[in-house]
Amino acid sequence: VVSNAILLVDYTNTLRRKYGMALEEAIITAGRTRLKPGLMTTLTTTVGMLPLALGLGEGSEMSAPMAVSVVGGLAVSTILTLVFIPTLYYIIEKKFRKNNA
Fold first, then answer.
1. What φ, ψ does residue 85 adopt, rounded to 5°?
2. Cα Rg for the chain, rounded, in angstroms?
3. Is the separation of the CB atoms in 85 and 12 below 8 Å?
4. Structure pTM?
């Protein structure tokens, strides 16, 4: 999730520097471009953890709570990456641009 957030911000900066996009346009474009890889990564990990989280198999009672925590953490952090990081980036950029102007 941290890597996805870093890649999202880096791609937004690349769009702004290399292609001269406006802040809002770069954030939206980067979000659309990085949405699929981020969701695929989260989905594969979540689906891989599902049998463990459901407690299937012998002795799974011990590792099921950890798997549930991982699945829940991934879901929440993915939403935060896709919503909170671009919003925070926008707010910080607007504040710095206002102070530098």
1. -60, -50
2. 18
3. no
4. 0.82
pLDDT digits (tens, 9 = 90+) for 34-87: 999 989 999 999 999 988 888 877 777 888 999 999 999 999 999 999 999 999
Is the sign of the CA dihedral 62, 81, 98, 100 positive or negative?
positive
Characterise 22 by phi-psi region: left (phi > 0), alpha (psi -120 to 50), beta (else): beta
User: Distance (Å, rounded) from C-alpha 3 to C-alpha 75?
Assistant: 15
According to the model, what pLDDT value does residue 97 have?
Answer: 79
Residue 4 · residue 38 · CB < 8 Å: yes
CA torsion 19-95-34-80 (nearest 10°) is: 180
In whole angstroms, give the CA distance from residue 78 to residue 3: 11
- How far is it, in rounded angstroms, from Cα 41 to Cα 37? 6
**8-state DSSP, 1:** -
